[in-house]
Design brief:
The protein has ten helices and eight strands. The protein is of the alpha/beta class.
């Protein structure tokens, strides 16, 4: 097993209240002991949580020793406002970004100055003289808006050809999905690291809703096993075992690292990590 297969990073969403922010800081401080390679903080569709992301990133930076990576969304953003927030991150000492096109919220009037992630990546690298270290998003099961899987793969590899460090995938529950995706990328000459994104399973209904919203497939074998449990605690225990097995398989195959979508919840991820050899 390669050492870098044991690299963990964790994603949080920005709380809406001061109390929620205080709670997030305590959670992040506990995650420091894992240890974490970096903490990322999500960015709402169309810039809806831009200030929340900034506040969360600054608080995490001041209260933890882990590098902080804010999400930057292109949809709904213009060059001036984006430059303003990026300068704030630079002044704070943040160097890492997760750069995404983002989702257009319902009723939103304009897509903004950055219709595609590559436009946003090129702008950031040029405007800030390649100061930031950039990670991008990947859809191993094809982006929901893609014309075809083949075209989606071509666009993804074009994005990875820019000055970016690597990518983090949308969550998935079948390791073969990840292995097939990365193999297809290599066939197109895309060799940069692609880190699998992992989502714990806590609640069946919430899982199905999130999977539908994100374009993630739930294997029939997983759904069949979930249907055996009616008690939420039993679902949680099963979810920990299932996801721990998935993570173990990925680590055994020398993935670049594991990125956990935490939903600002420490406990299930702690249990998953404890089960990894």
């Amino acid at each position: 097993m390669e050492q870098n297969s044991r690299t963990f990073s964790f994603e949080f969403f920005p709380p809406k209240t001061t109390l929620g922010l205080e709670k997030l800081i305590k959670i992040a401080q506990e995650f420091e002991t894992v240890p974490a390679e970096y903490f990322s903080v999500t960015f709402g569709a169309g810039g809806s949580t831009q200030q929340g992301t900034l506040d969360a990133c600054e608080s995490l930076f001041d209260n933890t020793k882990i590098p902080i990576a804010p999400h930057i969304s292109g949809v709904g953003s213009d060059r001036e406002s984006l430059s303003t927030i990026l300068n704030k991150y630079k002044d704070k000492g943040l160097k890492k970004l997760v750069v995404l096109r983002g989702d257009l919220p319902s009723g939103y009037g304009a897509i903004g100055d950055f219709p595609y992630a590559v436009n946003l990546i090129d702008f950031i690298n040029k405007e800030f003289n390649e100061y930031f270290e950039i990670e991008v998003g990947a859809y191993p099961e094809t982006h929901p808006e893609a014309i075809s899987a083949e075209q989606d793969l071509i666009y993804f590899c074009e994005k990875m050809s820019r000055r970016v460090n690597g990518a983090v995938t949308q969550f998935f529950y079948d390791p073969d999905v990840y292995f097939k995706f990365t193999e297809n990328c290599k066939k197109l000459g895309c060799e940069k690291p692609i880190t699998p994104g992992i989502m714990p399973i806590n609640n069946k209904d919430a899982l199905m809703r999130m999977a539908k919203n994100c374009g993630a497939n739930l294997p029939s074998s997983l759904l069949k096993q979930l249907n055996n449990y009616s008690n939420e605690e039993d679902v949680r225990k099963f979810g920990i075992e299932y996801v721990a097995s998935l993570v173990q398989t990925l680590i055994n195959n020398d993935v670049p690292g594991i990125h956990f979508y935490t939903i600002n919840n420490l406990e299930p991820i702690n249990e998953i990590i404890k089960q990894i050899d």
